[in-house]
Amino acid sequence: FQLILRSPSKMRWFISRAMGKLSIIRLVFVLSLLMSLLIVVYWENLNWFYSGVMPREEEELKEEQKESSAVSAEDMEQRARKQRIMDVCSEMSSSKEFPKLTRPFDQITNYELSNLIVDDVHQIIYCYIPKVACSNWKKVMMVLTGFSMSGKKPYTDPLKIPSPVAHYPYYHLTFNRFPKLYGSQARQMMQDKLKNYTKFMFVRDPLVRLISAFRSKFNYGKTLMRTYGNVSDLPDTVQEAHAAGLKPTFQQFIAYLVDPKTRRNLLNEHWRQMYRLCHPCQVKYDFIGRLESLGTDAEQVLKLMKVDHLVQLPSAYTNFTEASWVRDWYEPIPTEVRRELYKLYEPDFKLFGYPKPDIVGDEETTP
């Protein structure tokens, strides 16, 4: 060390070496500090590292996951409904009680295909069932097809379409009109559209639907009043009959339905079985909606058809027939008649997943 002090050149060399070592130490210290900070940041953002989502987006991710699980639940429900139809059709294919349930599509008459409405613009087929929100769905279909009255602009709001207009048959393109429009190619065109278009329908508890049909449609019928009301002298018009206090009761209406003379046909679509209107064993529907879950089902099917940005289903009217009314309406009817009524609509209950009503009871067995 004394030699270094006596030699200026050696002194400079020693100082430069010492300063270099200090710089390296400082550099090592700074790098260590940076590494410590990086480790802290890494642990704080470990969840982000694995998920690929920034911390501030975690809430959005949770919401997306909720929506995804909800959609999956709805899709699962649709799969279950469609699978049930397939199972019941297979099970009842050999039944002699309902021979028309599983007959080939070509054996279904044109008249029986009058409830399938076609929208060629968006490639949609809707099978309407009276008393199952069909007024509003018909209005939706008219908006989608660009329907307009003579000299006016097409409707864009379903609520602006009067109900009598919506129900006028010739304002809709239905399968039963195809023979006149397309001649010998009609059946093949039906098959092609059924294969390529999105098809949907909405159903309802069969017994509740009958109550709704009776409340709004079954005003007067001479044959029924004579046969089931024991009234011989009848007015000619509904207004005169009502003024005289003559109106069929619900019990008389049910007796009319289960009578062997009328039950084979049930020509009026308001109380004809749903399976006879929409033929679910022959038509593979892409969506089966229920009136009991109309809001969510309507939203889902409009998205499925990619028209939810064009139209929405109007809200249902307030005078709604409730499922809780079933017992009050049907209890006065004899048990045997209730069982006959259930048998008449049994395919609808089974196909669309409605449980056998308690008011029907079990068949009595003889010892």
From TrEMBL:
It is a single-pass type II membrane protein. One of its GO terms (cellular component) is Golgi membrane. GO terms for biological process: carbohydrate biosynthetic process; proteoglycan biosynthetic process. Its main location: Golgi. PANTHER family: CARBOHYDRATE SULFOTRANSFERASE, CARBOHYDRATE SULFOTRANSFERASE 12. It comes from the Eukaryota. The keyword Membrane applies. It is found in: Golgi apparatus membrane. Its EC number is 2.8.2.-. Belongs to the sulfotransferase 2 family. The keyword Transmembrane helix applies. It is an enzyme of class 2 (transferase). This is Carbohydrate sulfotransferase. The chain crosses the membrane at residues 21-43. One of its GO terms (molecular function) is sulfotransferase activity. InterPro entries: Carb_sulfotrans_8-10, P-loop_NTPase, Sulfotransferase. It comes from Salarias fasciatus. Keywords: Carbohydrate metabolism, Glycoprotein, Golgi apparatus, Membrane, Signal-anchor, Transferase, Transmembrane, Transmembrane helix.
